[in-house]
Each structure stands twice: as structure tokens, then as C-alpha cells.
Amino acid sequence: MARTPSAKPATRKSAASAKVGTTVTKENLKALGADRLADLLVELSEQDAVLTRKLRMALTATHAKDKLGKEIEKRLRTIQRSRGFLPWDRIKPLAAELDALRQSILNDVATTDVGQAISAMRLLVELAPSVYERSDDSSGYLSDVFREAASDLGTLWGRQAGRDPAVTVRDLLTLLDGDGYGTCDHLLVSCGEALGTAGAAMLRTTLLTRLHKLPVSKGKENYRADSARMQTLGHMRDLADAVGDVDAYIDAVGLSDRQPAYIGDVARRLLDKGRAQEALEWLGRETDETSRFRWENDDLRIEACEAVEDRDQAQSLRWKVFRDRLSLPHWQAYQRHLSDYDAIDVEELALNHIRNFPVRGVALSTLLEWPALDAAARLVREHTAELDGRDYGTLRPAADRLSESYPNEATLLYRLLVEAVLDKALSRYYSYAAKDLASCRLLAPMLTTADGMESHEAFMIRLKAQHKRKLGFWSLIGE
């Protein structure tokens, strides 16, 4: 009897030790020893072509690093020659293999032969069209790898000693002009070191010459010419970013007939260069009529005002953003800049503004996030009819949050969600409505008759009378 309690912990400890020892982890596999692991890998590689290729690449990187670039190019050309359609379940494995090859080029091949690394990376970039043509990359896995490879290519150009800037300009334009899939979107920005001052000047001259040869933009009347202008101007902006020249970026924006769309981009770059007053002047060009990005640029205005030490204006902007869209991060930043004395009065003013905000769903979410649960419950009671039962992303979390302390108000929200589904006969959402009705049932014993609250029984009678033909829903209820 005395030994029994000590036996059980020992058994549990042994089981835990056995589990740890059999879990496939790096440390546990090391315990098998090199010979046993090698035997297992050889056995598995005979059944797995992907594993075989990985092992061959790893061996080449270890024992014949000077041949690794050629081995990678050989594999890339095999993929390029392939013509079979790639089903969805093969996209991610292929993207993983290509990304592994990309990293091997950048981290292994480039350490011994930058020229060979450039050759292999360019082949990887040029592989993109043939792969896209036989696959559906809606997941974006492949495009992410190819864009990374293009950016890496620009970096490798910069690492090649004695590279002629004219060659970089030629190769860069060849890839940009032939890019129909957005593969080279990040290439130019990574070419600052490769271009240098001479190459950047050469490329800018070439782009300006192209731009001046294109017809003046005619909008929808000549989309092809307009598209060519936008593409060329985009290259000029990327070139400015590549060499860190904000004035060149501004010049490129000035050549466009869509300047308002770039106001925030210009301001961001000016702020990054410590030119806050100029950033404010650019932001001042925005009007309600010309800017679709005004909200996106509010934070830039605040940052610029702080940079020029106009803190009153920065506070005014924070308060305005909070009032306009109930942004709690802006309220919190506003509050941090107040004295303790002022903060008390302003907090009540802010809460009153939230309570009276016309978009009730936004107001409800904000009160819950504040948190001000009593005010949120009051909003539900007083403005139930103004809440949209289709806004499940707001109402369901709100109902869950209120259910413990405010069962009446939580029930009102669950009922809104149920009725919104049934009123529109949205059968694909019946399962969600059934769960919300189950929540109503759980809260039923806690309901009070305050404010004319309809009992659960009365609600069910009304619901069944109005929606008795929706048998698909009632079959989920089990009543």
C-alpha cells in the first residue's frame, strides 16, 4: 500500500521520456547517428524525387561548391522545358523548391562566383512566364518567389566588382520591357549600388527620352499610350528611390497628370529626409475633391506637425481623426499629450461623441474596445432598430462580450442575427443562425422584463409563425 503512490509517478515519467525520445526533432534524430540517418535518407530518396534533388544540391554545396551554380541552372532549365499543367496542389511545393534554389544562389553560389550567381538568378527570373502559362498562381506563392529573385538579381549586380553601369542599364531595361507579369516590380529599386551615379544618370536620360517620344496622355481614348507613360514614369520613380533622391521622385511625379495620387508618397519621402515643412506643403495640396487618400495621409500630417513642433495642430488633427471615424489609436495618442486635469473632462466628451456617433455598429465596437460595457449595453437597448443584423462581424462578438453581465442586450443582438438570416432566407447561413438561437436559449433564464423585453418563449412563437416554412433551419434546432 505504501509503495503504490510512488509507482504511478514513475510510470508517468517513463511514458513521458519515451514520448520525448520518439518525437521527430533535431535532437532526437541526432541520437540515431550519422550512419543510420544516411541509410534512412538513401532509402527515402529512392521513392522521392524531390528529396533526391534536395540531397544532390546539399552534397554539391558541400563537396563541389564551384559546380553548384551549374547544377542549379540545370534544374531551372528542366523546369523551363516542362509543359505539363501544374494543378493547385503542386504550386506550393514548386514555389518552395524555387525559393530554396533562390536562397542557395544568393547565399552559396554568390560567395564563390558572383558572375555564376547572376547567371543562375537571371535564369530563375526569366523562368516566370513559362511557369505562369501552365499554372494558376491565385495563391501568390510563385509570384512572391519570382519577385524576390528579381530583387536579389539587382543586389547581385551591385556585388559584382567592376561591372559596367551601361551593362546594368541594358540588362535592366531588357527585363523591365519584357515583364508582362509584374515579376520585376521590385528590380529597379534594388539596383542603386549596381547603377551608381553614372548608371542612374544614363537610365534617367533613356527614360526621359522614351517619355518625350510618347503621345500626350488622352485618358481612356488611348489606353495603350497612356499605359506606356504610366509605366515609364513608374520606372523613373523607382529609379529615384533606388538612389535615394527625393527631388528626382518629385520631378517624376510632376511629369504625371495624376499628381494628387502621389501626394502622400512624396510627403513620406520628404519626412524620411527630415524635410517636414515641405511635406506639410505637399499635404496642403490635397482637397476633398482631389484626394481619395485623405484618411491614409492623416498620420503623415500629424507626424509632420510634430516634426515642425506645431503640437497644437498635431493634437487638433488627432482629435479630428477620432471624431470622424472613432479611431481609438488616435484618441489614445491624443490622450497621452493631455495633462491629467484636462484628460478627465475630455474623456467624458469623447465617450459622449461615441454614444452619438451615427454609424451605430462602429459606435458599439468602439465602446466595447474602450471598454465601456455599460454604455455599449445602453446603445443596444436604445438603438436596436438602427443596428444591422447582417453585420455579424460586429454584432456576434458584441453579443458574446455582453452576455455575461448584460443578458438582455446580448439577447437582442443574437435575435437580430437570427432574424437577418431568416428574413432573407439565407440558407447557407442557417447553421450560424441556429448557433445564435442556441445562445438566446442559454440566456433565457437570465432575462428580465425591463424596457418591455420580449421573453424567449414569445420570441420563439413569433419566429416560428413568421418562418415556419424554413424547414432547413428548423431541422437544425431540434424542436
What are its keywords?
479 residues
Number of E-type strands: 0
| Major sheet summary line | none
Overall 3D form: extended
Class from secondary-structure proportions: mainly alpha
CA-based gyration radius: 32 Å
Overall pLDDT confidence: 89
Helix content bin: over 70%
Along the chain, the helix and strand elements come as HHHHHHHHHHHHHHHHHHHHHHHHHH
What is the strand content?
Answer: under 5%
Number of helices in the DSSP assignment: 26
Distance between the termini: 54 Å
Stretches where pLDDT is under 50 for at least 5 consecutive residues are 1-8
Question: What's the arrangement of secondary structure elements?
Answer:
Blueprint lengths: L3 H19 L3 H5 L3 H12 L3 H15 L4 H14 L6 H25 L1 H13 L1 H5 L8 H19 L5 H13 L14 H22 L9 H20 L3 H9 L8 H10 L3 H8 L10 H14 L3 H15 L2 H9 L3 H16 L4 H10 L3 H10 L9 H11 L4 H17 L6 H14 L12 H11 L4 H7 L2
Helix pairs in contact: 3-4, 5-6, 5-7, 6-7, 6-9, 7-9, 9-11, 10-11, 11-12, 12-13, 14-15, 14-16, 15-16, 16-17, 17-18, 20-21, 20-22, 21-23, 22-23, 23-24, 24-26
